[in-house]
Amino acid sequence: MMSSNQSWIDRDLAVLWHPCTQMKEHETLPPIPVARGEGSWLYDFDGRRYLDVISSWWVNLFGHANPVINARLKAQLDQLEHVILAGFSHQPVVELSERLVQLTPPGLERVFFADNGASGVEVALKMSFHYWRNQGRAEKTRFIALENSYHGETMGALGVGNIPIFTETYAPLIQPAFIAPSPDCQQAEPGESCADVTERALAAMRALLERVASQTCAIIIEPLVQCAAGMRMHEPAYLTGLRALCDEFEVHLIADEIAVGFGRTGTLFACEQGGITPDILCLSKGITGGYLPLSAVLTTEDIYQAFYCEAPASRAFLHSHSYTGNPLACTAALATLDIFEQNNVIERNRQRGAMIDRLTAPLAELPNIAHMRRCGMIVAMDLVDDRAGNRGKPFPRAERRNQKAYRYALDHEVLLRPLGNTIYWMPPYIMDDDQWQMLADVTFDAVRFAVQD
Ligand SMILES: *Cc1c(COP(=O)(O)O)cnc(C)c1O
């Protein structure tokens, strides 16, 4: 048995092109074969295991092979695996839509489905543009995004992205967004508070809107945490201020909660903390508990009504994906929402906060760790140099240090996957106290190992 497993992983590099990877690097660190998952653990074939503290790319909320989700999916499998959603409907998609409307901020009343995060963002951008066009304001063709934003990697989504490693190469193919300063608290100048950064970012946004609002459809943001940028966090007050600016200047607010939704920031949705309702809300990743690809785009009755008429067809929102609203994915999402409700997950996560802060305190004291930060169930810290002349800055050749931390943690049963010089924890919500402690210990040792020469 072992040898046949061995043989498929050896064949991997002969056929597969892995995502987000310079394939040549696999010459020294081949892909890790995963035989099965259980709870927060991933297991290979040789008895090695890895604590999945990045939730398999930020999607898994309640562990691998979760018995509740598994049982519901198996039952749905015998009912209906998939059906076209144009002209047809099914129970899981209706029930999921109802529950999302009920759980998301008030005023979001219509749900449009797609099948992954980036396509959800494409839906949001097209919907906003098309709304204005239907209102006779076809001159609105542009978007505003934040510095360091990430909204996925299809062409439209890259247009509202601002992380060079993803966008630069494709720049000739992309219509770029206007970029506004990020409210990221780490950008505080000496003597400035986070509230000052918030105000400065809002003032800059106002200045930008004064110039370009007439040609702008929407502002798109990742509320509270810019995840792919390195878990950069901002104040809820920014959301409140931004909502007011969008109303004043007649542009939509698109909240991309693909990564931060479903409890990551401590509330079910990040927008709640700013007390706001966006015009369009994008959800994906955790929506199915990490089981199946699905995205939902929620919007207001006002936007919906702008498309509702007899003719012409071009006024209707014709966007479609083959697997739109897939019944199995919707069922996994319904089971996920049941777990939230039945286990009082948001409250239990909140109670974990003090314990997590206790665990991060020793790490924060390491001379090579800066910007220890937490927002709900996202913890992040930056690996920095502590040598005179470069103190507090990323190491020269930081990539090598991050790779060392990654390898060290893997060797010690923890799957950490640094983002640039940021080490972060974004674990499933089911980790027990021992697993949290192990995570903190291994991270501590991985940092100390990474900074040695
Ligand atoms: C991951 C992510 C996306 C894209 O989702 P995919 O399913 O990977 O296409 C969009 N926005 C944010 C904020 C994300 O973190």
Overview of the molecule:
- This protein has 453 residues and is of the alpha/beta class.
- It has two domains: 141 residues, Aspartate Aminotransferase, domain 1 (Alpha-Beta Complex), CATH 3.90.1150; 272 residues, Aspartate Aminotransferase, domain 2 (3-Layer(aba) Sandwich).
- The protein is 40% helix and 15% strand.
- A seven-stranded mixed sheet has the order 4-12-11-10-7-5-6, sandwiched between helices. It has a three-stranded antiparallel sheet with strand order 1-2-3, with no helix packed on it. The chain has a three-stranded antiparallel sheet with strand order 13-14-15.
- The longest helix has 20 residues.
- The protein is globular.
- The chain starts with a helix and ends with a helix.
- The model has no long low-confidence stretch (mean pLDDT 96).
- Bound molecules: pyridoxal-5'-phosphate.
- Pyridoxal-5'-phosphate (PLP) binds next to helix 5.
Overall form: globular
Q: How many β-strand runs?
A: 15
**Strand composition percent:** 5-15%
Please tell me the overall pLDDT: 96
Distance between the termini: 41 Å
Quick one: CATH superfamily of the largest domain?
Answer: Type I PLP-dependent aspartate aminotransferase-like (Major domain)
Radius of gyration: 22 Å
Pfam families: Aminotran_3
InterPro entries: Aminotrans_3, Aminotrans_3_PPA_site, BioA, PyrdxlP-dep_Trfase, PyrdxlP-dep_Trfase_major, PyrdxlP-dep_Trfase_small
Subunit structure: Homodimer.
GO molecular function: adenosylmethionine-8-amino-7-oxononanoate transaminase activity; pyridoxal phosphate binding
